[in-house]
Amino acid sequence: MERPVVMWPVTSFNAVDEDAKGYAHMGDMEKFRQGVFAGMDYDNDDRVDFAEFSAWDVGFEEAAVEEGKPEAIFTARRILFALWDRNGDGQLTQSEHRFALSQDFRRADIDDDSVLDQDEYLIGYSVNLVMRAAIRPDIDVSAQ
Ligand SMILES: [Ca+2]
Ligand SMILES: [Ca+2]
Ligand SMILES: [Ca+2]
To answer: What is the pTM of this model?
Structure first.
C-alpha cells in the first residue's frame, strides 16, 4: 500500500537504521543524532547556533520552494530550534539535543515497544513532523 508520507522529503530512515534491521532502537537514534549534531556544528565548538541550524537541510527547503512556501521553512526552523533550545540561550548543546531526541523517540514510539519502525519514525520524529506541518499541513499522516 502506498503511503503519501514516503513521497515527502524526510530525514531518511535508512540513515538511522544503518544495518537495515527494519527498526531503530535508542542506540541507533543516538548514533544518528551525534552525526547530525556534528554535521550542524560547522565551527566545531560543540554548540549549534541558529545560523548553523538553519544551514542544515535534508531537502525541506527545496520542497518548501516547490510548494510556493519558502517562508514556511524559516518558521519551521524557528519552531524546532525553540523546542530544542530548552534554556533559550540561542545555543543548542549536545545534552539539549540528546534530550530532545529521547523525547521524540518516546513520542514517536506509538506501540510502545521501545523501537521505532519506519512509519513511527517518519510520522513521529519532530523534524519530519514540524517541517511537514509547516509546508504541507494538508498531509494528515496521523489519520493513517
Ligand atoms: Ca557551533
Ligand atoms: Ca541552549
Ligand atoms: Ca515502536
So the answer is: 0.81
